[in-house]
Amino acid sequence: MTMQDTETKSAAAGAKAFPGSDSRRYNYFEPKGRKATHYEDVTVDVQPDPERYLLQNWIISFGDGTPTYSKDWTALACTDWHGFRAPDQEWERTHYQRQSTIVGMIQNVVENARRAGAPARFDKAWVTLLQNHVGAFKHAEYGLGTALMRAQRYGYTQMVNNAILTNASYKLRFAQDLTLYLAEIGSDIAGSNGGGFDLDAGKAHWLDDPIWQPCREAVEHIRAATDFLEQYFAVNLVFEPLVGELFRSGFVMQVAAAQNDFSTPSVISAAEADYERNLANAVELFALLLRDPAHGEANRAILQRWFAHHAGLAVKAALQLQPLWSLPRVKAASFVEAFDRARNRVAAIGREIGIDADLPALPPMEVGQPASAPAITDAAAE
User: Fold this and answer.
1) Would you tell me the crossing angle of helices 158-193 and 135-151 to the nearest 10 degrees?
2) Where are the domains of the chain?
3) DSSP per residue over 303-324, as a string?
4) Model confidence over 139-192: pLDDT tens digits?
5) Fewer CB within 10 Å, N or C, the chain?
6) Distance between CA atoms of residues 281 and 302, nearest Å
7) Is 81-381 CATH 1.10.620.20?
């Protein structure tokens, strides 16, 4: 045998041909549709799993023997965690592109509003509300973002982690959107009326105003949860429709125009679009877990317990916000109607994933006074 006949050994890409080596598509996983999408190509099996391709078991583990990723990090169970695909099919590049587009849109809105002198024409009572209460709400958004930022580390597959991570990123971006927006219009408002726009007032109201303390309690319970899927569930299927949407869409976006404010709804609308994507991802995941042939019923009981706990806190938080609807000089929205829409929204989400999320109706209440919270029992979890 001559030297020329000896097979050359090389680790270089393309050094050896093998079945499928000329394909531009990955073919080692089962796509959800007829063909694998770009999202699946760059997401599926990026995170290793000893039950699939990591035959030598975990290469790195924690000091106590806990593996790099563990199915025990959530009380929920799934026959195949790899079956989840996010409906928004978002991955690193598309996420950065969308975030950049949103930031650019908000910048254009704010610049055009300031150029036209719009903040100086805001109703004075509305300016105080923006300063104190929209400024307080940004802390809720930040708290949810940090909770999800922790939760995204613990998913068993890259698809689950990606969905939670992009959710966290959207929340943190929106908290930043509100901070920057209030700072920019605040400088115009302070210069136009000779008064001040206190950028620290929102934090003070978040920490001390009785209106915001139940909301703060609900957020802190989410952050304190030790199960990462409980955090994801509580944010998207409980807090967001009952408190987040209620405040953003049911109050700010409904009322702002009547106070000569046409820029704030444009900023808030970005968060509403974010939530529709995050909700679709969350519904897909929890519906998958409840359809699981081996673990579906056990998962349903766990979700009912989580719902009973977090819905009680979220309803209390929502009802304590009711006096905000009476603060604007021109009252263009009703808290009762907004809360009723929130109740129906939660119930519809529950039906979509397969749990009982019906909440009792509001008791009769005086306008401008916080309502007492309707009783929420654990009966559905039994």
Assistant:
1) 160
2) 81-381
3) HHHHHHHHHHHHHHHHHHTGGG
4) 999 999 999 999 999 999 999 999 999 999 999 999 999 999 999 999 888 755
5) N
6) 19
7) yes
